[in-house]
Every structure is written in C-alpha cells, then in structure tokens.
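Design review, sub-item: ligand-bound model
Attendees: FS, YL, KQ
YL presented the inputs for the zinc ion complex:
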Amino acid sequence: MECPSCHYSQTRVIESRTTDKGRSVRRRRECLRCHYRFTTYERIEFVPITVIKKDGSTESFDRTKILRGLVRACEKTGVKLETLERVVEKIEWEIEQKRPRVVTSKEIGDLVLAHLSHISQVAYIRFASVYKNFTSIEDFVTMLQELENKTMEEENHKNSLEGETSGQNNQKIPENL
Ligand SMILES: [Zn+2]
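KQ shared the predicted structure:
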C-alpha cells in the first residue's frame, strides 16, 4: 500500500480491526518514510454474476431459479430439498470461480445435469427434456443412451479402481526391500 502523502511503498500496520460483522478489516497504517498515518479497508469483493441467455439477453444470476428448476425435476423422486440446496450451493460456487463473472445459461444447465446424473436419473431426464427442448421421442432415446453410457463408464471406472486396490493388497513385497 503506497503512502498517500509521499508515495513511498513501504508501510507498517499499527492496528487491525474487523468491522461490519467480520466482513471487512480496518487497518491503521504508518508510512515508513514520512510516518504519515492513514486507514485502509479490506472487504470481500461482491461482483454479481451475469447470465447470458439463449436469445443473447442477459440477467443476473439467480440461485432460486436453479433451485426451482431442480425441485420441479425432482418431484416425487424422494430427493430431499436439502440435497438440492447443496447442489445449488455447489453450482454457485463453481460459477463464482469464473473470471470474468459471466456464464451462459447452457453452462448452468450442463452443471445442473452433471450434478443430477449422480442424484436421480428420473430428475436428470426431466430436467434435460425441458432444458434441451426435447421435441421428439428420438431426443429421449438419445438422452437415455447417453445416460446409460455415462453410468457404465462410471461403473467401469469404479471397478477398475477397486481392482487396483485389491491388486495392491495382493502384491508381494519385493524381496530387495
Ligand atoms: Zn509517506
């Protein structure tokens, strides 16, 4: 932090105090050269996330919209609301990592689908049919095929991991150790 008086770059912190219920830090600083004292504030940056919709228009990110979509897709599937709330939190977190804070509605949809595929296949297909604008039975068949392949891939992956672990257990300790 540069001294506002002499523009020297080295300052020391005399005092640090959190304010605004812990959401910001107030620091009293002193310039190491001219001893001028000044105050700085450190705050959590809040930048809204912009969503670009299919038609090119934009709106700010709204987590309740995602939750509503999830709740609708999970109707009568036995998936708990708190599970869905956690999904929304994760999605929001994933989007917040983006720089700049711009996301397309397609990216959000893909994130939702990625999470739903682990939670409920019924909900996954329901959400996909709305989100991908299914118009024919072929769309559903393709989607089901994709989902099946994905599940199989995951199963294979799991099996190969298990195989590796058991393989390690059976492995003999090399004699030269
Ligand atoms: Zn100074």
